[in-house]
Amino acid sequence: MRVQFFYSFILDTASTIVYKIVDNFANHRGRNSAMASSHSIDIFKEIEGAILSGKFKPRERLTEMGLMAIYRVGRTVIRETLKKLEAKGLVTIIPFRGAVVTDLTPEEVEEIYFLRAIMERIAADLAIQNITARETQDLKRVLRDVERHMRNRSDQMIEKDSEFHRAVFKACRNRYLCRVIDDLHAKAHIVRYHAWSLPQRIEQSIEDHRKMIRAIEKRDRRQMDMLVIKHLTFSIENYLPKWKRKGVKLSYFKNPLFEAEGAFHSRKKNIPS
Question: Any idea what the Cα angle at residue 201 is, between residues 141 and 212, rounded to 5°?
Fold first, then answer.
């Protein structure tokens, strides 16, 4: 009887210990999974930022080993991140070669900027109608921060410029429109990066941003519309000619969205040398 009781006691105790071990393991695994997921998101944002800022350049190869060494994470996190970046159009994964930072063909640039012209003009027009006085003051504070980064040519300069435009478009009060604009903005990273390499870009951007603030304060919808077009055409007209220098035959797109405001009034069929 005592022996039976003893065995029963041992079995109950062992079962309790096993259940506790399994329970603790499950909780620990859950916490680790949550931490890994959070870490994966952080790495995605870091690599995305490096691409958008030009740290990783178009057509640059991104090896798993290289990224693992830079960001001190495992292969699984890097692979997940590269897949997300590919889905966003920032990275192209080539079979048997790995990942490279996405470049754009002239046709892709034209298609993206055609849509950007539509979406950003709509958002700017809605923003200028809906923006409040407090939001305008907040926008001025953002602009001062942007200008500081531009004057210092900081690593965050391009992202800060994007932050200003996001703040403007946010006032359109349409989250879905803002998401589409953000997506197109990210896909055009190579065009924007090229534009920022031009010596006159910083001063022109500062001037355009200040004019946008004045147009918002006056609720001048036509002036705001012209500034949006000017901002877009500067990037695309300074990017596409590089393809002609490479010997690529281009059909410069006729975009009525731009031509209606005279922004492309001097456009010719062929890109000028």
Answer: 40
What are the backbone angles phi and psi of residue 142, rounded to the nearest 5°? -60, -45
Whether residue 175 contacts residue 134, with contact meaning beta carbons closer than 8 Å, is answered with no
Pair type for strands 98-101 and 61-62: antiparallel
Is pTM beyond 0.70? Reply is no
**Calpha distance 212→216 (Å, rounded):** 6
Rounded CA-CA distance 68/258 in Å is: 44
Mean pLDDT, rounded, for 226-251: 74
Tokens of 162: 């994007």
> What are the chain's domains?
2-101 (1.10.10.10), 106-259 (1.20.120.530)
Is the CA virtual torsion 110, 116, 229, 137 positive or negative? negative
Contact (Cβ atoms closer than 8 angstroms) between residue 128 and residue 170: no
- pLDDT averaged over every residue in the chain: 79
d(CA 139, CA 217): 11
Please state the separation of Cα 118 from the chain's center in Å. 19
b/e map of 52-85 (b: 16 or more CB within 10 Å)?
Answer: bbbebebeeebeeeebeeebebeeebbebbbebb
